[in-house]
Amino acid sequence: MIDHKSQAEIVRQSLKRRYRKEARFKAYGIGAISIALLALVFLFTDIISKGAAGFVKTTITVNVTLDGEAMYIEDASDPDELDMADFMEPLVQALTAQIPGAGPDDASDVRGLINPYATSDVRELLQSDPALLNTTQTMTFLANSNVDVYVKHKDDDAYSIKLDEQQQQWVDLLEEKGIISTSFNDVMFTNGDSRDPARAGVLGAIVGSLLTMIVTVVLSFPIGVAGAIYLEEFAPKNRLTDFIEVNINNLAAVPSIIFGLLGLAVFINLFGLPRSVPLVGGLVLTLMTLPTIIIASRAAIKSVPPSIREAAQGLGASKMQVVLHHVLPLAMPGMLTGSIIGMAQALGETAPLLLIGMVAFIVDIPDGFFDSATVLPVQVYLWSSSPELAFIERASAAIMVLLAFLISMNALAIWLRKKLERQW
Questions:
Q1: How do residues 32-44 score in pLDDT, each as one tens digit?
Q2: How far apart are the first and last CA of the chain?
Q3: How far, in Å, are 201, 239, 240, 270 from residue 224 at the CA level?
């Protein structure tokens, strides 16, 4: 006879082992997710802690006497005199007057507190109204980048303070008097790149990224959708189409730098297109995103039930009418979602753009697709490789801007999927 008691015990022991394995597997999953979340929190904390200071600028506000004699100007409407003028001197005199005990012998140290580009503010003021010569005007201009670092990081040992003790005392005094203050860094979003960290901004990189993305979207989306429709609905199933499908899947896994080499060889060396322009950048990113868009679009087309096609054909619709009037509209939400995710991936790419020259130092804001430009990931690369610590916070701030774009694009993809998806 079978010992039913022993059999039941064996089953119970087996169930216990299975439950223990299930609990361990669950614990491993929770642990893996926890580690990933901790790494993400650490990454965001580091970026935000460093980048927050990049959204703050340090300015000096004083009453400046636009002394024509000090600037060597007799007629402010004469462009030649403006070209030869000393616009720094009135700023130095105005700031020196606010520092007790400072005199002409300290002019060099006082000059070190003022951003060199502040002279352009004086020049633009006189150009806009030459009658302001020999008058006193309240002016707000950027402090020197060394002052900016000191004001924001005086208690942080990670930053090297390049001001001497006397200059630090002057800055502390001017802060107490409200002459030196901090505010939102609008320069970050109104300027292009600069050798001076206090004047460096991301506007040029943002415009370059937008121009590059426009080229990428205009080319990759229609070509990718058309390719997916042909392969899924019209192409015969033979060795040639199998070969094409395999290569599309393989291209989706090719390192992005390979597409940069391809763009360099074809678009620049063969076709003679200029380097470092959004058009070439968009063409390279189009090649990189096409496999992703084709794969996502084919998956969206496959998700349309065969009954839709059969019903349309039963009513006399042609193959083209079935695809354009029924299959494509139903598959479009999935196509848009895949395309947006592909665009987000392209927006964050750096390696292929480095090879086509978009790593150049670009100060001017690009006006078109053939103007020299850079993009946000490359701008981050340039600033992070700078020896000046002040550029590190600019790089972190630019990363935050880039992440905002990427999160927005992914949120848009999720919203489109929820808004347009159909339940079958």
A1: 999 999 998 998 8
A2: 55
A3: 35, 21, 18, 24
Helix (H) or strand (E) holding 65: strand 56-65
Burial of 81 (0-12, 13-18, 19+ CB in 10 A): middle
Q: What is the pLDDT of residues 377-410, one digit of tens each?
A: 999 988 988 877 788 889 989 999 998 988 888 8
pTM of the model: 0.85
Distance (Å, whole) CA 214 – CA 206:
12
The answer to whether 375 and 354 have CB atoms below 8 angstroms apart is no
Q: Tally Cβ neighbours within 10 Å of residue 84.
A: 10
Per-residue pLDDT tens over the stretch 98-114: 998 888 888 899 999 99
Q: Judge contact between 285 and 260, C-beta under 8 A.
A: no
CA dist., res. 116 & res. 145, Å (int): 10
Going across the sheet that includes 136-142, the strands are: 136-142, 56-65, 180-184
Asked if 163 and 150 count as a contact pair (C-beta separation under 8 A), the reply is yes
Q: Catalogue all structural domains in the chain, each as residue range(s) with its CATH number.
A: 56-184 (no CATH), 203-420 (1.10.3720.10)
178 is written with which tokens? 């409200």
